[in-house]
Amino acid sequence: MKTPPFVWSGRVLSGVVAAFLGLDAALKLAGRPDLLQAGIALEAPPILLGAALLGATLLYALPRTAVLGTLALSLALSGSIAAQASAGDASRLLFAVYVAVLMWIGLILRKPGLGPILLRAVR
């Protein structure tokens, strides 16, 4: 069976998002000093944030748990958006929004049956 081109586009887009979020999680787990300051501002240890982000990214990357991973990453990114909004940093706020939108687009493209289900849920 031939895979449609939009499914491959979704896989590539999801791979790029997963690679970016995986790198972000690895940097948090490595304990970079600038990320340590960001974790103190959020009153959460960066290692805990990195582990949660890495777990959610792995869930997103696996086909069977992609929807659960997308929901978990949406929560993580919304927390990032809220923190950046309270700090007044619009550029980082928009970057988190862009990553979240690309993440959802990648999921919908690689799982074609999910689009109509989400549209029915919104109505």
Query: Which parts are unreliable, with pLDDT below 50 for 5 consecutive residues or more?
Result: none
**Count of discrete domains:** 1
Overall geometry comes to: globular
Percentage of residues in helical conformation:
over 70%
CA-based gyration radius: 15 Å
**Major sheet summary line:** none
What is the chain-wise order of helices and strands?
HHHHHH
- How many β-strand stretches? 0
Strand content: under 5%
Secondary structure class reads: mainly alpha
What is the average of the pLDDT values? 85
Quick structural gist:
84% of the residues lie in helices and 0% in strands.
Structure description:
By secondary structure, the protein is an all-alpha fold. The protein has one domain (5-122). Helix content is 84%, strand content 0%. The chain is built from six helices and no strands. The longest helix is centred in the N-terminal third of the chain and has 26 residues, at 5-30. It is globular, with a radius of gyration of 15 Å. It starts with a helix and ends with a helix.
Question: Could you list some keywords that capture this structure?
Answer:
single chain, 123 residues, mainly alpha
Write the layout of secondary structure elements.
Blueprint (H helix, E strand, L loop, with lengths): L4 H26 L2 H9 L4 H16 L4 H22 L2 H21 L3 H9 L1
Helix pairs in contact: 1-3, 1-5, 3-4, 4-5
